[in-house]
Amino acid sequence: MAAIKQITREAIAKILDWNSVISAVEEAMVNVSERRAVQNLRSITAIPKTDNILFAMPGYLNTDKSTALGCKLVTLFPNNAQRNLPSILANILLFNENTGVLEVIMDGTEITAWRTAAASVAATKYMRDVNSQYKTLAIVGAGTQAKIHAIAFQHQFKFVKVSYNIIWDFITLASNSCSSSSSGDEELVINMVPISTNSTRKNKRHAGDIVPNYSEEVHIWNRTYKKGEILCEELHRQSKIQGTTKEYTPFQNLEECIKDADVIITTTSSPIPLVQYKWLKPGVHINAVGVGEAVMELDEETYKSSVVFIDHLAGVEHELRHLAEKGVVFQGEIGSIINGTTPRPSSGQITIFQSLGT
Ligand SMILES: NC(=O)C1=CN([C@@H]2O[C@H](COP(=O)(O)OP(=O)(O)OC[C@H]3O[C@@H](n4cnc5c(N)ncnc54)[C@H](O)[C@@H]3O)[C@@H](O)[C@H]2O)C=CC1
Ligand SMILES: O=C([O-])C1=[NH+]CCC1
C-alpha cells in the first residue's frame, strides 16, 4: 500500500485563500441541501468530569466536480488557552472511495477556522438585504473564531462609515466644533477639520471644502476586556502591514458594541444569552457561531423575532434541541437560499444564521 500522505497545518495555511474557501463552502452548503452530500449526524464523545469533547464528522461526496470520502476528527478542549493551545484542534482523514484505503491525513485546525468563517460570510451574503449598507461589524468574543471572522469579513465586505470633514481656517471659522445631523435613518456626521491637517501639496484644500472621510468600523467585545483589546491591536497591526489601515475598537460594554451594528457575529461558548433583542438595530444580520450542548448566545426574544436559517437541519435538530425546546423555529438551510429554492428573507427583518459546523 502506498504511504499515507500527510499535510501539515503550515502547508494548508499557505494554500487557503478566501475566494476559493467561500465558493467551496457555498457549493458544499448546496450539496448538503440537495442531499448530494452524505452528511450523517456527528458523534460526540464527551470526556466525563471535564468540558472536553471529541467529535467525529464523517461525510461522502460524489459530484461532477469532486469525489471524497472522509472524516474530520475534532477535539474541543475549552481550557486549552491556558496551555497555549487552540480550544479546537482538528484532523481530516481522506480514504480511497473504491478500496477504503486511508490516503491522506491533513491538519483540519486551519480548515475548521476558515470554513466556519466562510459559512458565516455565505450566510450573510444570502440572508442580508441586498440593498442594505454595511457600516459597522460587531464581533462578540476574542478567540480563534473571532479573529478569523474579522479577517474573512473584511476581505469580503467593506464595512465603511462615512463622515464629512468641513475644512476651516482661523479666518473663516473661529471654533473647532463638531456637528452631526440626521436624515431618515442615515446619520450625517460632519467634523470641522483645520486646513493645516487636510491640505497636502498634491491635494490642496480650501476653507469651506467638504471632504469625505471613510472609516472602517469593527467593534469587538470580550468578557475580559484585555483580550478584546489585544485582538484589536493585533488586527490593526495586520491591516497596517497590508496597507489598509482599519479601525478595530474594543468595548467594555456589550450593548454599546452591538447597538449600531449592521452585522453581528457571536463566537463564544456562553450558556447565558449575551445579545439582547432590545439592543438590536432593525434589519441586523447575526451569525451565531458558538456551539455546545447548552450554548445560547442570543436571548429568546432575538431568536423568536428573527428569521433563523441553519447549515444542516438534521444536525441542528439533533444537537440544538435546547433551542428548539425554547420555541426557536429553524426556517431552513442556507443551501436552499443559495440554490434559489427558498426566497431570501425580506428586507428589514432581523436575520440569524445559526451555525453548527461540519
Ligand atoms: N459553528 C461552527 O462551525 C463552529 C463553532 N465553534 C464554536 O465557536 C465558539 C468559539 O470557538 P473558538 O473561537 O475556537 O474558541 P476560543 O476558546 O478560541 O474562544 C472562545 C471565546 O469565547 C469567550 N467565552 C467563552 N465562554 C464564555 C462565556 N461563558 N461568556 C462569554 N464569553 C465566553 C472567551 O472569552 C473567548 O473569547 C465555541 O463555542 C466553539 O464550539 C467553533 C468552530 C466551528
Ligand atoms: O465544525 C466544527 O468543526 C465544529 N463545530 C462546533 C465545534 C467544532
UniProtKB/TrEMBL annotation:
Name of this chain's protein: Ketimine reductase mu-crystallin
